[in-house]
Predict the 3D structure of the following.
Amino acid sequence: MFLIHCPICNEPRSEDEFHCAGEGHIQRPLDPMATSDKEWGDYLFFRSNPRGTYRELWQHTIGCRKYFYIKRNTETYQIYKTYKLDDKSERVALDKEHSNKNKFGDLL
Amino acid sequence: MLHLSCHTGGRPIWSDALCAFLADDFNKEMQCVGAANGQYALDKIIEESVIAGINAAKLSGNENHDFSSNVNKELDILKPKVETYLASKAQAIFHIPHAKATFMAPKQFVDFQLDVTAAGIELAVAEGFESIEHVKRYTALGFGTDQGKISNINGMAIVAKKLKQSIAETGTTIFRPNYTPVTFDAIAGRNVNSFFDVERYTPLHREHIKLGALFEDVGQWKRPWYYPDDNETMNEAVARECLAVRSGVGLLDASTLGKIDIQGKDAREFLNRVYTNAWSKLPVGRCRYGLMCGEDGMVFDDGVTACLAENHFIMTTTTGGAAHVYQWLEIWHQTEWPELDVYFTTVTDQWATMTISGPKARFLLAKMTDIDLNPESFKFMDWREADVVGVPSRIFRISFTGEQSYEINVPANYAVVVWEKLLEYGQEFELTPYGTGTMHVLRAEKGFIIVGQDTDGSVTPADLNMGWAVAKNKPFSFIGQRGMNREDCLREDRKQLVGLKTKHPNQVLPEGAQIILQPNQPIPMKMVGHVTSSYFSAALGHSIAMAVVKNGINKLGDSVYLPLDNGETVEANICSPIFYDPEGAKQNV
Amino acid sequence: MYNCYQQTPSDLSIKKQLSMYHISTEIKASNAHYLLEEVEYGHLNIRVGRENRCFTQALHDVTGLQLPKTSLQVVQNDEFRLYWISPDEFLLLVAVGREFEIEKKIRANIKNTDSANHYAILNVSSAQAFLKLSGSRAQSIIKKSTAYDIHPSNLPVGKAVTTTFAKTQVILCRTKEKDLNTTSNSEEYSIIVRRSFSDYVWRWIVDAGKRE
Ligand SMILES: [Zn+2]
């Protein structure tokens, strides 16, 4: 058992009060019907599943019932931070990581 | 200690000097002192401890002492004087030498719990197992309840020697919790017997016990299953209860249905997005059935939602799906559409729901309330506020049986009195309490699906022949719309919901039975579907079944075959799943 | 706009059955070490954003209470108790039987009647049970039932947490601290649990209360 800091209740709570809702910062296409089967499949089924830093959506289910993000390490389970849905800083960081990956391809 | 370090992800490091494994520095926040750090001399242990203590105090932030930057000075102050003495270096005998080769020499047991010998370990290496993890699994070294605490180092040293490499190169297996054996008793704690799982009761539980109900587990709920008369079997009781509803009036405790209160000016818009059908025009006082799909276009819940006021709805969900649906609404609202003004509150426990169903339902209800029950004004799919035997209630005229049916919702605190009065006034109409057993048969006679029984997460509304419950022209792309329009979901030969009538009317097919088109084919046979629901219908006098069959909707009238596990093959005809009152006239009267 | 519904019978002879009715109409369980009671209140669930001044003013006019300023806080006066449940959810406890009157009053006091004025009030008096646990064993019973740290420094009077309790969830509150003048441990806790789970929680506590 470990403790997770709920950014809404603003205190650490036992892990079993929380529920993981999968990878965070997944953008739903604005017009689903306009997407190709491939684009829709990518949105619906494909996740990055990295070894290392991962940003996930979690809910404080037995608590305030609000969703929030956890930035954590999938290898060590270390939680770097938890942050609210309206915190855009990690979104920016994530976009940067993606564009770097695209730019440098396999070099990274 | 080494175990604790491993549990956080560290890999032990071999020390030749100490003949032991030590924790690595993987976990930067962990400090090892004393023997755990390979330090056995008392004065050194104290020295390390003081330094670690200072560090820990600093890291914890609860630093009251003003530590000097000179640790040696601190040590002078804090460290007690102890005698130092010299200890000789550790020496190891991992493998007792013998004049003969190990396998010829007397047996040398390494793992005393699993009788692994030095010869066995050498054999593993000779067989080509070089990784210590493989040697462990080949020999069972360290698999006992001591988890290798007695044997592992000796074993690894023997492997290293045989492979002519160092112990450091050989490495060690990983330690996992628990450090010592833990009894199941300690893990179970008090979660045994009636505390093994939560049991949820409806406010009418005691009334069901009084009537001799047997209970069925539905999720964590205890629901009345059937109410046997003396010596009645389940089949007899269900047949009696079914006939009573079809010819008179029955009473069901439907309190376990999930109920979610929805308020806000965007409530309708939200319903439009999460249900497949349209909600923009549902007037106050009316109810509507809705299907909920995942983004993949597969049905995952259904239920009736009523418009209580312009900005106020009450949604019902399946008993088992209540928590999931509630979470589903919240995640979409919080993460995707926070701009919609809508609040959801679970009210499953607030309302007790008593359903009276059957051609005499209205006569019974008329004894209980003064509101206008005229079917011209209180129509099928209407709801009304009413005073029922003095208790304020909401009555929904919806039907899961196909009969004239009223769902009486009262605050749970006042449920018992309404139930008692129903039984009292119901005597005149031979009111028959019925349970989930009967409910299942009655709904199947009408071809009404049960999500999770007739669907399995791979069924679209079109597969259920419920295209009528999918809006084509809603402005916002509702959840599931894109998914159900994927190429694969539009195939004609998908498994589709149909009814089955067995050739012999008394044969009740087993649920889950596989369906084939040709009875005389070699194994493996080509399976085209399976039975999802199957009962004997007392009202119709024959068995009925619902099934999913490839392209079944276009195969009405065709024969199919069901090879059973007793070797018998049963013939059945594909038909509409609506066996009883296909025009739907009875629920409207 | 909303269906605000009188849920209690006007006929006072109609008996009310609390959540533990099927076990006992006494709604009390105890031995020398603990006392467990079900207590009647009117429960109003309130959903509103803190920025909705119009609503918070109406709430204040009727109850004299402001929304709790920080998370997990409980504010109260002689007549009302208001729990923080989440940033936009609060639970208002009122004297039993007054829930409809208070709900109507709050709605009537809301000056902005525009449908865009976003809030929700809901009578949930039947949906949840309020249990009170006291006695020398109260503390150890709670400790055995939740992972939440109930030390007074973490769970003082005036704080309420939704947390795990055995295999279910409750809103847990310390309602009375240990009296320093007595040797006995006279702590008191309140547990708000969903009605259909109250039997489980009740039996769990009774079972725990029997143990050393
Ligand atoms: Zn929280």
